[in-house]
Structures are given as C-alpha cells and as structure tokens.
Amino acid sequence: MVKLKQYTPEEIKLHNTKLDAWVIINNNVYNITPIIDNHNQGILSTLGKDATETFNLFHGNSLKIKIKLGKYLIGKVANSHTSSIFFTKLICCFTRNHKLV
Ligand code: HEM
After folding, report:
1. Nearest CA to ligand 1 atom 6
2. In a domain, 63, yes or no
3. Structurally, how many domains does the chain consist of?
4. Does residue 65 have its Cβ closer than 6 Å to ligand 1?
5. Whose CA is nearest to atom 33 of ligand 1?
6. Cα–Cα distances in angstroms (integers) from residue 11 to residues 16, 23, 32, 48, 49, in the given order
7. What pLDDT band is residue 92 in, cutting at 50, 70 and 90?
8. Is position 12 within any domain?
9. What is the pLDDT of residue 101?
10. Which of 16, 25, 32, 91 suits a disulfide with 48, CB 3.0-4.6 Å?
11. Residue 7 and residue 29: Cα distance in Å, rounded?
C-alpha cells in the first residue's frame, strides 16, 4: 500500500485561500484548488479545516463524486488512522454495486 504523506493540522490550516485550498475529509488531506471555481462561495469557509461534515451534507450519497475526490488526495492528517478504513469501505461499496452512482 502506498504510504501517504502526513500533514499536521497546523500546516493544513495555512492552505486556506482560493489559490491554495486544502481540506480534511475523513482524516485525508485534499488539495481542492482546481475545483474551487466549480463551487459557490460557501466552500471557502471550509478551507484549511475539517470539511467532512460539509462534504457529506452535499455529496454524501454520490460515489461518483467520492471517486472524483480521490484525484485531489495529497496525504493524511498526521497520526490519524481512519483514512485507510474509509478507502476500504469505498472500494467495497464500489465492487458491490459494479457501477458508479
Ligand atoms: C469541502 C467540501 C466539498 C468538497 C471537497 C467537494 C468536492 C467536489 C468534487 C471532487 C466534485 C467533482 C468535481 C469534478 O470533477 O468536476 C464536486 C462537484 C460538485 N460539488 Fe462539491 N464539494 C464540496 C462541497 C460542496 C458544496 C458545499 C456544494 C453545494 C453548495 C457542492 C456542490 C457541488 C456540485 C453542484 C458539483 C457538480 C456535481 C456534478 O458534476 O455532478 N459541493 N465537489
């Protein structure tokens, strides 16, 4: 398994602008700078922070979006252990349905 780079919450917090936008979702760190313009201004308040709740609220039911999100993964929160569980669940879900929803 590929070992993801680890980032501390302090470091993640620094990437909180439209041009340098990181978020934490399920202890994974994503650089979502390329998709900021696809979104409304509301997303800006989540930058540099844990955006799991906001993400689940708007995209929680879409496996297609969750898979697209994988493209922006850059690492995980230092000393966290749940991200691999999240991905295992995602893959199980994908293989169970045999299609993207
Ligand atoms: C930090 C929280 C969020 C993250 C990480 C996120 C992530 C994403 C990703 C990865 C995509 C697919 C982009 C692509 O490949 O084109 C997407 C699409 C989209 N997002 Fe979000 N999102 C977030 C919050 C929101 C919120 C708050 C809203 C609603 C106001 C929203 C509305 C949408 C819409 C309408 C699309 C297009 C859907 C589609 O192409 O079918 N997102 N988002």
Report:
1. 55
2. yes
3. 1
4. yes
5. 39
6. 10, 11, 16, 9, 10
7. very low
8. yes
9. 44
10. 16
11. 8
